[in-house]
Amino acid sequence: MSNVVIGCEWARKLRDEISKAVIGQDVVVERLLVALLANGHVLLEGMPGLAKTLLVKSLGAALGVRFERIQFTPDLLPSDVVGTMVFSPKDGAFSPHRGPVFANLVLADEINRAPAKVQSALLEAMQERQVTIGGGTHALPRPFFVMATQNPIEQEGTYALPEAQTDRFLFKLLVDYPTLEEEARMMECWGGVVSQPELRAVSSGAELLELRHAVEAVRVAPAVGQYILALVRATRALAVPAGDGALRRLGFGASPRASLALYQAGRALAWLRGEEYLSPRLVQEIAPDTLRHRVGLTYEAEAENLTADSVIGEVLRTTPVPVI
Question: What structural domains does the chain harbor?
Fold first, then answer.
């Protein structure tokens, strides 16, 4: 069976299973599958009631991996996330007690409700796929993903994520309201008191690790690689003060992680779409989700009602596209 057929079939069976519990959000689901293939974490941002938590939970059930949900609150402690050393009176020794982060898919629900000391507990786990408990290093299971949610409108009792943490997310996905037809289907399916449908595992962590090798077969032309670099470096150019007094849109541009993320996620998206090479069109499609959380708007830009997406759109419009 060809890589094209394998990718399309894998995506189809996961989408079909997730759709039993979540109606719509097709683009978000596809991006989540891309993140799985690219070994990246995802930050989901959207209004309350848009099924962000249900979506991640359904993904874990369909993928057939161990799933843990951590509800972030202001009184949460780092040991509640990674674990701690526990004293045993029987033998007088301390042993590590592993926290909920020791799962394949970890949902950090409302991650911006916990203070920085708790958020920082995830930094090592997200980057090195390991945690340190009592001076000892413990490897996390493979595959390992953090998928976090946050509410963009609430201010009370929230803590903004530091740039060092947001940069570790492959994507920041904006979850929007469903369409009229999708919301009508929700009422028809779940307007009663019947519980959500039971989802079955249609894949596995082992299968996902195998599929990543197939993604490596997607070719990237040197011109496309240079295009990715040009897009990322263009965001940094916008953070340099202009000598003519023009509006400086960004306080900082995207880091080298952005280049790697565009490259890796682009190949995964191409494979998922059944394509054998990464095209500039796919790079452009995935760029906003990869870059919006890696750039910082200046106060002047915010006063002009500019957004990260509008600045990234300008970068995409002004950067020459290679002809492949």
Answer: 3-191+203-210 (3.40.50.300), 218-318 (1.10.8.80)
Cα separation, 286 vs 301, whole angstroms:
23
Question: Environment class of residue 185 by beta-carbon count within 10 Å: exposed (0-12), middle (13-18) or buried (19+)?
Answer: middle
Hey, is 220 helix, strand or coil? coil
For residue 275, give the nearest of 2, 13, 31 by alpha carbon.
Answer: 2
Per the listing, tokens 């002047």 go with 300
Give the C-alpha separation, 195 to 190, whole Å: 8
Q: pLDDT, tens digit, for every residue of 105-127?
A: 999 999 888 888 888 888 888 88
Return the pLDDT at 245: 65
- What does the alpha-carbon distance between residue 45 and residue 294 come to, in Å, rounded to a whole number? 15
**Separation between Cα atoms, residue 292 and residue 269, nearest integer Å:** 18
Cα 189 to Cα 21, 22, 59, 251: the distances in Å are: 9, 10, 19, 47
Within 10 Å of residue 121's Cβ, how many Cβ atoms?
22
What is the helix (H) or strand (E) element at residue 174, kind and residue range? strand 169-175
pLDDT at 153: 76
Give 306's Cβ-side CA count (13 Å radius): 21
User: Which residues, given as ranges, of the chain have pLDDT below 50?
Assistant: none
pLDDT of amino acid 20: 87
Q: What's the predicted TM-score (pTM) here?
A: 0.90
Distance between CA 74 and CA 157 in Å, rounded? 7
